[in-house]
Structures are given as structure tokens and as C-alpha cells.
Amino acid sequence: MPFAIGLLSVLAIACALSSLVTQGQAYNWYVSKYGERTAAVIIALHADDAYHSGWFLALTGFLCLNLIGCSLVRLPGLIRRFRRMGDPDAMGEPTATEEGINKPESVFETLRMPSPTARKNGEGREELYSAKNRIGLWGAWICHIGILMLILGFALGQWTGKQETVYGVPGQTKLLGDTGLAVTIRDFTVSLREDDTVEQYTADITVTEQDTGRSEDAWISVNNPAKRFGWTFYQNSTGYASRVRVLKDGKDLQEEILCVGESLAVADKPDLIIHFQAFYPDYVMADSGPATRSGQMNHPAWLYLVAYQGQVLGMNALMEGEELTIDEYTVLFDQPRNYTLISAKRDLFTPLALAGGLVTMLGLMLALYVRPASLKAVKDGEAWTVYGRCEKGGVLFAEALRDAADAERKGKPEGKGEQGT
Amino acid sequence: MIQTENVLFTIVMVGYFAAMILYFVFAATRKETLWKAAFGIQAGCLILHTAALVIRGIGAGRLPMTNQYEFATCFAWALCLVSLIFIHKYRFPALGIGAAPVIFLIIGYAAMQSREVRELMPALRSNWLAFHVSTAIISYGAFGVSFAVGIMFLLREKLKEGSYWDQHIPSLQKLDQIGYRSVSLGLLFLTFTILTGAIWAERAWGSYWSWDPKETWSLVTWIIYMVYLHLRLRRGWKGKAAAMFAVIGFICVIFTYIGVNTFLPGVHSYA
């Protein structure tokens, strides 16, 4: 137990501290944000990717070992306690005792105990006994197993799972990494409300298995993924794309669809790069720089950057119909549209993690809300003495027993106080 | 409709403030009628608060739980509801002395947020929203009550046995149990919150756990209360230590709610 408490505390501190460090950035980023010395410490401790670092995995491993050890060690005792609860002779130290009861059955009833079984005890005295909620004894154990399943499912998913992304505009077909699948984007819709806010992104795709040529269509939108060929496809995000045409001496040289952030190398002069920096559908020059007034294509503008042999030649915005001229080359941006980014995931262990979560939930419910209790009434002369034992929440159970006993002594069938213990 | 909600919200805020003052005056003067009046005002405010939330929900055409204002006002509502249930169930009127200031602070925080009704972004348009956020609200409300019980425990320790407060504040042993039960309620619902959030994230983004700051701090809070449960099984850790742990746990809850949104933005930045 002390080890588990210490381990949980260290894990909580590790998670909390790691959340304060932006994850997954490059060394230079940390230097610019925190300074050289702190950045060096962050990199040395792998705090830049804390949740996948060796020390974090070791902590999680120790937690798993602790959970396994705890579950194994406690199992025999738990089985014994579970069996013992059904045996009146093995009831153990009572939590509370009430004397001078005339009708013990009403106390059993008030405390919502099952109908007691009557017998004569070893001393030949009449005895009533019943126990309830024995399953509650298993709560913590089940919870431990659930957490173990959850960690195992997550770890195996991280280890064996695969995730790929593709992006493009309607009409394009892209390979989904090295999965042997190709995704054709047939249509992509951004549904806008009257106030110009986005209601939904919907993509109509076809997934083709390259080996067999088999195809399956799917509609995906945010919160509505689709499963095809063992992969789950998600409508992940969107952005702007545009057609970019390059003319040389007035004649078409090349044409490509570029998404924001992508670059084009001029076909016959590969050192000349056109980078599509940003797109503004309703362009306005604000104090803070270029911006868009709305999502409507009222006044489109393309922000570009031109580089030659790694040197930036210039950066500017082009309005609709404007051209960019670099020596004999003319660059035109037009046909702006939304592209869709689709992610695909294959993780065979997600169901295990989900089952682990549900088992944890079940264990917690049993541990926290199903309170095992046993009640024994022994005839002591004319009156009865009632012994109650509750495995959890003894004070409140004792109070409920006292209330039930008081009610019985006063001749009322039901007492006040907590009945469901 | 939104104007009606604004009026009700203002009445409710004033009502919670009045209940808090009455509880304080009750603590100072020990007049029985005061806590009864405070309890009555709180119960009345809870009804009006419910009406305000329903009106906002109808006006917005969705559950009113999706931005800082809505979550804060729901949090105050849940805290009020759970505290009234605990006061009634455990015959513990003085719990209001600890709970009412927290309710007022949370509703005060809500009042500082924008009350504008906004349409939901696509990721929030999910049936899981109702399960995820409503369980979070109940969980936070229950942890708020455990905080109040912890404070009452620490105060009760300073009072002599046989004093006036014996009839209004349960024994230390019983307080410890009440605190445990409120933590149990909170922990169960927090687990449900994390679980439903994970299922939702899996459907929306294809990743049920991505170490987003809010996720991470929910896990930290969950671990803290797990430590609380384990510590209680050890000799000498019930009572005062447990009460202090419940107080610390709630501070962590508040950081998860407000601190993370303010300092560590992630996919939960809107909540």
C-alpha cells in the first residue's frame, strides 16, 4: 500500500509538471521560450515528450506490476472474506450492537437486509442472520483489474496501432501511407450557418484496396467516422487550397493544386520555389496584418512567398485576377476551395482499453456504493440483541442500526436514517 | 428569452449571496431561524437557477453546458443541489457555512464570463456532450461539497465537545464518513466524465487519449482522489489528514477547471 500511494503521488506530480511544458517542440523552440539552460534540462529529462519518455513508461510499468501484485496477493483473502460473510459464526467484530429488541425482523426489514435465516447457535440460543451486498467486497479488486486492462489496451494500441493522414480537394486520389489503400475525395462540403459559423464538415470518399481493386464509399463528418477495410476514417480538419498556374513567356508550363503551406518548384527551374503561405477569402488589411472579414469568397487574396536557391526573393498578397511575374515566368492563383484532411486509424486494442474503462467504472461503483453488511440477532432471554457489521462506512451504518432499533422499541415499523447501507 | 434568463441569473446570484450571509450570521449568532431561512433561500434559488438553465437551453436550442459561462453556472447549480441533498440527508445544516461561499464564488465567476449564446463548433455537436459535461458538473459539485465538509471537519476539531454546535455539526467520525461519501460521488462521476470524454474524443478525432492539458489534469485530479481513498485504508490517515486531502483535491479541481483553461490551452479551451 505505501508503495502504491507513493507511486500514484509521483505519477500525479509527473503528469502535472509535464502538462506545464509544451510537448513535442524542437530544442530551439524551448531555447527561445525558456532560455538555453532550461531548454537543456527539458531535453535532458525528455520533458519535451514526457508521456513517451523512458522514465514515464517505467513509472507506468511499476504501476502495472503493483496492480498485478496487489490483485494476486489480495485474491485468496478476498475469496475467504466473501465466503465468510455468508457464515454467521464467522461474522467478526460487530460495528454496532443494539440490545432490548423485541421484533428483530423489523430491524432487518428497516435496514433492507435479506430475509434472515433462523437457527440455533452453538450455545443453543435462537439466532437470525443475513448478509447483503457481498459483491461489494470485490469492488476495489475489479477496479484494479480494470485499470490494468486500460493501461494494457492503451500501451498495446500505442505500440501496434497505426495512424495515417491524407489531404486533398475533390477529384484527387491519394495513397494512404504504405497501407495499400488509396483514398479518392469525391466531394467535400463545409456547411455554414447564417451567421457564417461552420456547422459541419462532410467528406464523400472512396477507399480502394490496391491489391484487389475493391472499393467502398463512405461519408464522413466530424463526430461521424466510418470504418472501411479495418481502418477508421475521420474528418479531421480543413484548410484552403488553390489552383496555381505557371506560365513561361505566356505559355502554360505547369498547373498544380496547392494547399496552404505547400510549395511548388518551377518545372524547368527547380531552384525557383513558389510557396502558398496563406489564403484570405474576404481579405482586409487590419492593424495586425492581413486578415479575413468572413468565410465568404467576397474578396479573395493569396499570400505567397518566392524563394530562389534557398534565398527569399519576396512575399506579398495577390488579389483575384492579379499575376506574379518573375523574369519570364508568370504565376497565377485561382479557383480557391477547401481541402479536407482525413485521418485514418487502425488500433485493435481500443476495445480492450474501453472494456478496461468500463470494468474500472463497475469496480468503483461496487467499491464505493455497494456496502457489504451483515446483521445477526441473538435471543437474550425475552429480548434480542442485534449485532451489525458493515465493511465500509461503519459510523453511518451504526447510526442507521440505532435508528432502526429505536423505531422498533417505540413500536414503529420503520426508523429514520440511512436505510440503504 | 435570454433577457428572462439574465433576470433570473441576477436574482439567483443575489439569493446565493443572501444565503451565504445568513449562514455566516447563523454561525455568529446561533439563531436557528437563520439557517432555516438560508436553506430555504438556497432551495428557492435552485429552482430559479434550474429555470434559468432550462430557458437558456431552449433559447440556444441545445444543452447550456458548452462555454465558460454555461459550465460555471451549471457548476454552481450542481454544487447547490449536492450540498442541499447532503444537508438534508445527513441532517447537517452547518454544511451551508462551508458550501455557500463556494457556490457564490463560482456563480460570481460565471457572472464575469460572456453570456453570449454561440452556435456549436462541429466537434461539440455530439450526443456525448450531454453525458461528458453533465457528469463533470455533478462530479465538481460533489468535490465542492467534500471541500466544504473538509473545512467543517477542520473547524469542528477546534470546537469543544458538548458545545452548541454538536446539534448542527455531526461528530468528527461522521463528518469523516460524509466527506468520504461526497468524494465517492465525485470520483465516480469524474471517472464517468473521463470515460465518456475518451469515447467522444475517439469518435471526433480518432484518439481517445492525447494528453491534452485538460485530460491530463483530470487524470491528476482522479489520481489525487485515488490516493485519498488508499490513504483512508491506512491507520491514522482518516479524519484530519483526509479532510486536508479533500481540501487540496478541490483546489486541484478548480485548477483543472479554471487554471488549465487560462494557462494551458488545448482542445478544451472553449470549456
Question: Could you characterize the architecture of this molecule?
Answer:
The complex is a heterodimer of chains A (421) and B (271). Among the domains of chain A are: 87-128 and 376-421, no CATH class; 240-340, no CATH class. In chain A, strand 5 (173-175) and strand 6 (181-192) form a beta hairpin. Chain A has 421 residues and is an alpha+beta fold. The model of chain A is unreliable at 414-421 (pLDDT under 50). Chain A has helices at residues 2-20, 27-34, 36-44, 54-84, 104-110, 139-160, 350-369, 394-409, and strands spanning 96-101, 117-120, 126-132, 162-168, 173-175, 181-192, 198-209, 215-221, 226-228, 231-248, 251-259, 263-265, 272-280, 283-286, 289-292, 301-308, 311-319, 323-326, 329-346, 373-380, 383-390. In chain A, helix 1 packs antiparallel against helix 4 (54-84), helix 2 (27-34) packs across helix 3 (36-44) and helix 6 (139-160) packs antiparallel against helix 7 (350-369). In chain A, strands 4, 9, 10, 11, 18 and 19 form a six-stranded antiparallel sheet that branches. Chain A has a five-stranded antiparallel sheet with strand order 1-21-20-3-2, with helices on one face. A four-stranded antiparallel sheet of chain A has the order 5-6-7-8, with no helix packed on it. Chain A is elongated. With 271 residues, chain B is an all-alpha fold. Chain B folds into two domains: 1-115; 123-271, no CATH class. Chain B has eight helices and no strands. In chain B, helix 1 runs antiparallel to helix 2 (32-60), helix 4 (95-111) crosses helix 5 and helix 5 (128-158) runs antiparallel to helix 6. The longest helix of chain B has 34 residues, at 172-205. The mean pLDDT of chain B is 88. At the A-B interface, helix 1, strand 7, strand 10, strand 19 and helix 7 of A face helix 6 and helix 7 of B.
